[in-house]
Write a structure and sequence with these properties.
Elements (H helix, E strand, L loop, with lengths): L3 H8 L11 E2 L6 H15 L8 H19 L1 E2 L14 H34 L17 H30 L8 E8 L2 E6 L4 E4 L1 E5 L4 E7 L4 E5 L3 E6 L5 E5 L5 E6 L12 E7 L1 H12 L6 H9 L29 E2 L4 E2 L2 H9 L1 H4 L12 H12 L3
Parallel strand pairs: 3-7, 6-12
Antiparallel strand pairs: 1-2, 3-4, 4-5, 7-10, 8-9, 11-12, 13-14
The protein binds dinuclear copper ion (CUA).
């Protein structure tokens, strides 16, 4: 095991190869320039821990912990679609507007308070010529009423746009003809049903751009939370009751989502993708989902014989299981295992071989499939498109 000073030296090595621009997850602050300044100072501040006094060592460890905490919020792998501060839906913009307003109001309050503070520090500072203790004042009723009423008034003004937006977002979807979608949370994947279209799918939601998606959220087991930072959420999926959430996507693209309520072992691996399609692409997708290609019967037989069909459904085949994700057209999906791994034959084989090692706690059992059976199943499933 490497010693702390050794790890520290490596971390602070200005030439280290992984020093690439960092993107913070969940926010869009311009961290890279800031981080470079921080890094510059930390390299000056930190000397190896074994070459400093005890006090300096405590300071250095504290600063190192702060630096590591900061870096923990960053990632070089998460795609930019995680940016909460760049919404691509009406829902996201409504929330960002409240956030933006409050930010500038509080920035104004901060400036006023700091100016008053600096004025008081300069104006009433102790001078060499002062010979007496200044007059001691206490019990200034007007001042006490003032500093009670002023924060109350500020909170009141903050409450107005906040409450208005809450009512707006909890209300019915704007505009007519929303696309109704039922979202059911499962440990640890997402079920998407389109009741009007007769489509059931999993983990990759397709919605048309410019049309409001009206989601009915519930859960099959424990509490989950729907959260697609650029589009909508967070809103809980509760077993036994229904929550609603609507959003109107404003830009085509792929948006990443994540369960936002601790729901068990693989909570962090309960991800999803939302594809905001133009109307032609969405129409093509719905057609392909409603009229899936007839799968080859040998593969369908292997699927049936291996026990997969007990949990999974595939439209157009005898497989009608309801416990696991619906696999109709699974070959068209970009990811597997709730957006954990890319949908490639190799990754699908890994998943079938040992689900638990891809996704800890996965409820899909290890069926002890032999390699030939895995190859047959991969060929069959990847061909469903
Ligand atoms: Cu589902 Cu966390």
């Amino acid at each position: 095991m490497r010693s702390l000073p050794e790890i520290q030296r490596q971390l602070l090595d200005p030439d280290r190869s992984w020093r690439v621009p960092l993107t913070p997850t969940g926010s869009a602050c311009t961290l890279p320039p800031f981080l470079r300044v921080f890094e510059h100072w930390s390299i000056r501040l930190f000397r190896p821990l074994d070459a400093v006094s005890r006090e300096q060592s405590i300071l250095h460890k504290t600063l190192l912990a702060a630096l590591l905490t900061l870096i923990a919020g960053c990632s070089t792998v998460e795609p930019p679609e995680w940016r909460t501060l760049h919404p691509e839906s009406d829902f996201g913009h409504l929330i960002l507007n409240v956030y933006g307003d409050l930010f500038w109001w509080t920035a104004g309050i901060f400036v006023v308070v700091e100016l008053l503070l600096v004025y008081a520090l300069l104006r009433f500072r102790s001078r060499r010529t002062d010979s007496e203790v200044p007059e001691q004042v206490h019990g200034f009723t007007a001042l006490e009423i003032g500093w009670t009423l002023l924060p109350a008034a500020i909170l009141f003004f903050i409450a107005i746009p906040t409450v208005r937006t809450i009512f707006q977002l909890q209300g019915p979807p704007p505009g007519g003809d929303p696309l109704e979608i039922t979202v059911i949370g499962h440990q640890w994947w997402w079920e998407f049903q389109y009741p009007e279209l007769g489509i059931v799918t999993a983990n990759e939601l397709h919605v048309p751009v410019g049309r409001t998606a009206n989601l009915a959220l519930s859960s099959a087991d424990v509490i989950h939370s729907f959260w697609v930072p650029q589009l909508g959420g967070k809103r809980d999926l509760n077993p036994g009751s229904e929550n609603r959430l609507w959003f109107t996507p404003t830009k085509t693209g792929v948006y990443h989502g994540q369960c936002a309520e601790l729901c068990g072992t693989s909570h962090a691996n309960m991800r999803m993708r939302v594809f905001v399609d133009d109307s032609a692409t969405f129409a093509e997708w719905t057609t392909s989902m409603r009229e899936p290609a007839t799968p080859d019967s040998a593969g369908a037989m292997a699927f049936q014989m291996s026990g997969c069909a007990a949990c999974h459904a595939i439209a157009g085949t005898p497989a009608q299981g309801k416990v696991g994700p619906n696999l109709t057209n699974v070959g068209r999906r970009t990811t597997l295992a709730a957006s954990m791994i890319p949908n490639t034959p190799e990754k699908m084989a890994d998943w079938l071989r040992a689900p638990d090692s891809v996704k800890p706690g996965a409820l899909m059992p290890d069926l002890n499939l032999d390699e030939q059976r895995i190859r047959d199943l991969v060929q069959f499933l990847e061909g469903l498109r």
